[in-house]
Amino acid sequence: MSHVIPPGASRRLYNEDLAPAEHRTWGFYSLFAMWMSDIHSLGGYTFAAGLFALGLGAWQVFLALVTGIVIVFVLMNFSGYAGQKTGVPYPVLARVSFGTFGANLPALLRALVAIAWYGIQTWLASRAVIIIALKIWPELQGLTENNFLGESTLGWLAFLLMWSLQLLLLRNGMETIRRFQDWAGPAVWAVMGLLVVYILVNAGWNLSLDLPGGNAEWGVTHAFFAAVALTVTYFSTLMLNFCDFSRFAPSRRAVRTANLWGLPVNFIAFSVVSVVVTAGTFKVYGEYIYDPVEIVGRIDSIWALLLGAVTFAVATLGINVVANFVSPAYDLANVWPARIDFRRGGLMAALIALVITPWNLFNSPVVINLFLGGLGALLGPLFGIIMVDYYVLRRQHVLVRDLFREQGYYTYTGGWNRKAVISFLVSAIPAVLFALLPLLGAFSAFSWFIGAIVAAVVHYFISRHDTSLAESITAAAAEEADPGGAPWTQVRQSR
Fold first, then answer.
1. DSSP state of 64
2. Which band of pLDDT confidence, cut at 50, 70 and 90, is reported for residue 49?
3. 3-state secondary structure of 10
4. 455: closest CA among 429, 473, 437?
């Protein structure tokens, strides 16, 4: 079976995985389940409780979560609609604004963040495996007492097990991932439901939802808006590459409905349940326990332990696949389409995540705060540029076939749009400074917004009178009026 390269497309820009999606199998439920997998993780569990540390009360945290997730819902629809209409993944969509080769800049920045967190999340999932192993085979304790590159033998075995399981999802690319997500997210809800009932019964159905918090250093109003901003930033990675999933959606309505139920409704419900369970642990155990795996581990039942630990290991794999696996697979494929497809890109990402020994990253405050914090701040400018370019400047008119041509409307100068690069540099500097400088600590929570807004404004003003942009809009609008003029996007595989 060989794949036909469409007329005019370049092997340096095109492969089957990057091409516009033909099979639209990600309907409402699959996208909704994807959001469940993304939110039902150990990070998602502790996120809401962590907002109390800002010095807010229960109703203030709840209101901040609602406000933040509604903003996420709106912004996520922007990325989702673009993917659904064009059918292309994030690095190809980035070619519209950054250029056919310049798109590797936003793609590789997103990939760096994803690969680092891919390794870290895999390692966190392996913690649950260790708990199970030691509970069933206590004699394995001896394997936890040595150290090789910062991890014990049992730690390495558990990590490699979780690492290998994720590679199985590469077998059939996105279709296997869809099937995995369809049951992974709901499974966590089932276990969380049982955990809530267990905690409430043992707490006598009497608990306080005001978790212990810190002091609002810059006032309660600042703390509230910081909580809103942090909620948005929590989803900032997927706001860039949600089109990797929505490109397979059959309609805008499927994207919008799945986002509504998967984000505001599901996220708020899961946050409330997380806070209830955490608050209940104080009543039951005399201390606040923020790790659900540890809560399950205290239940005097090997079956409860197994069910809980396995479920939360699956949950962590779920968010890893959604947020940190799919993106670098496409991003690395975009660098060399003729040699790297989705599967090879995913394998490369997994190998890099293994080599960097992610537990050493996670245990280093410098790496987490400076490296990942700084890279995270760069995602705002990328979102601002790509979205203002697509929605405001181009009014959603894109000539998809030219995204795969070396000489077309998105070639700019040698494949790079200098205006997008300038907009990125101008906005990236303040975003990183606000994120990392202690002197600007009051603004650190808002670094994503600062970067996104500055980038969007700068890119709009330096690009709005671009004649080549106007010509590309005219050409794209003409093709949309007569879609029969570009049949190559329908060319798939031939025997």
1. H
2. confident
3. coil
4. 429
Please tell me whether residue 494 adopts helix, strand or coil conformation.
strand
Query: For residues 260 and 97, is the Cβ–Cβ distance under 8 A?
Result: no
Please provide the average confidence, as pLDDT, over all residues in the chain.
Answer: 89
User: Given this model, what pLDDT does residue 486 score?
Assistant: 53
Whole-Å CA distances, 435 to 1, 109, 170, 440, 461: 49, 16, 35, 8, 25
**Structure tokens, 26:** 């990600």
DSSP for residue 390:
I
CA Rg value for the chain: 23
Burial letters for 459-468: b for 16+ Cβ neighbours within 10 Å, e otherwise?
bbeebeeeee
Distance CA 192, CA 196 (A): 6
For 7-16, 119-128, 429-438, which range has the lowest pLDDT when averaged over its residues? Answer: 119-128
Burial zone of 71 (CB within 10 Å; 0-12 exposed, 13-18 middle, 19+ buried): middle
The CA distance from 54 to 43, in Å, is 17
Q: Residue 83: its pLDDT value, please?
A: 97
Q: How far apart are CA 178 and CA 29, in angstroms?
A: 10
Nearest to 243 by CA among 15, 79, 23, 35: 79
pLDDT for residue 342 is more than 90: yes
Backbone angles phi, psi at 2, to 5 degrees: -120, 150
* Conformational region of residue 87, where left means phi above 0, alpha means psi within -120 to 50, and beta covers everything else: left
- Alpha carbon of 343 to those of 171, 261, 351, 470: distances in Å? 8, 30, 12, 37
C-alpha dihedral sign at 112, 249, 100, 411: negative
pLDDT tens for residues 65-103? 999 999 999 999 999 999 999 999 999 999 999 999 999
Q: Which two tokens stand for residue 57?
A: 């009360």
For residue 483, what pLDDT is reported? 64
Q: How far apart are CA 20 and CA 106, in angstroms?
A: 19
Greatest mean pLDDT among 1-15, 45-59, 408-422:
408-422
DSSP secondary structure letter of residue 393 = I
Q: What percent of the chain has pLDDT over 90?
A: 58
CA distance 320 to 159: 14
- In this structure, what token pair is assigned to residue 190? 């089932």
Question: Rounded to an integer, what distance in angstroms lies between the CA atom of residue 419 and that of residue 423?
Answer: 6
Element of type H or E holding 493 = strand 493-494
